[in-house]
Structures are given as structure tokens and as C-alpha cells.
Here is the input.
Amino acid sequence: MQSPQGSFLFDLDGTLVDSVYQHVLAWDEALKAEGIELSIWRIHRKIGMSGGLFTHMLLRETELEISPERIERLQKRHAEAYRSRADAIRPLPGARQLLAYLTEAGVPWAIATSGRMETAAPVLETLGVDLKRVVVVTRDQVKYAKPDPDLFLTAAARLGVETLTATVVGDSVWDMLASRRARCLGIGLLSGGYGQEELERAGAYRVYEDPADMLKRIDEVAGRA
Here is the structure.
């Protein structure tokens, strides 16, 4: 009896590219433009969830008025500030090699990010991802983003794989929560700033430093055809 083939569903920011702190600074700039003062560490703890949920939670914490217009302005200002920093973003160590290994081994993989295509596209280019050949799901394409499972469910469906045989690779607790809700296994990476215990409590069954560390131990996670 042939066992079902495994597959990998990757988050983008902090997982494949070193962009978490660019997002943090972009949100800080957007918030200050709205006259909202918030500690950097509070912003960092929310990176990885959808921008809409992010702004709702931030505004709730500051007890300020939450209006659709204000949320739209914040998201627009964040996108502009993030794009101004995009040139400094680089793939994390081993990211390109890990994706190339999976491709060569015939292991299906996709990218599912809470970012919208306008901010994700330049970053995907640095990874050498061909949008015509690789399944990429962004916030624009689903109803809800992380910690809801929609991004990973959609990515699995487009790959033509079962979520029960898929593994989500992410750097935040929001990725791990979404992977559990999608009924996928979860692998956590420390490259986004979350700690090992946090990722494990949220559902990660393996935690690695970065894509290079994961590639070294790929046999532990059945990354083969």
C-alpha cells in the first residue's frame, strides 16, 4: 500500500525572507502618522496575522476609535512604508536551497502569506519564485487570513493535496494556530522572532532556526518524494 505523498505550505515573511522587522517598522510609521503611539514590541507580537485583524487588535489595545476609514488609512500607509524598505529584504539563509531541494525531489510546495500581492510580489522576486509555476496564495485571495486556516486550505487545494498530509512551515504562533485549524502538521522557524516554546505551545511539532537548519534535517520531516 503506497503512503500518501507529503507536501509543504510555507509562510513568507520571517519564514522564507528576512522581512519581519521591515513590517514592524512600517506599521510603526503608519501608526505614528495616525498619531498612535505604541511600543515596538507590541507591534512585533502581532506580525503574521492579517492586516485587518492586526489593526483591529492594535486600536482595541489603545482604546481608540476603530473606523473603517482609519483602518483603510493604516493599511495603505503600512503598505507604502513597507515598499519603501523592500530593497533591503533578503531571503533567509537556505530558503532558496530548501525550495530548490523540494522541487528537485518532486515534493509539492506552495506559499501562503497574510500579505497582499502588492507587498508580497517584490519579495517573492528576491526568492526567484515564478508566479506562473508556483502556487502562491495571498490575503487578497481568501476571505480570512491567519490565524484562520483559509490561506493554507486554499494553497493545499490549488496544489491538489490533502491537508492531512501537508506540513505548514511558519515563524509565528499565528501560522501554527492556522495550521492546526487546517489539520496540517506545523513546523516552526525561529527566524521571525518567536521562541521555541511559544511555537511548540501553538502546535509546532518541530522547530528549526531557519530554512537552512530545516534543510539540514529534512529527513526528520519526510521532505522527500
In short: The domain at 20-87 is CATH 1.10.150.240 (DNA polymerase; domain 1). The chain has two domains: 7-18+90-220, 20-87.
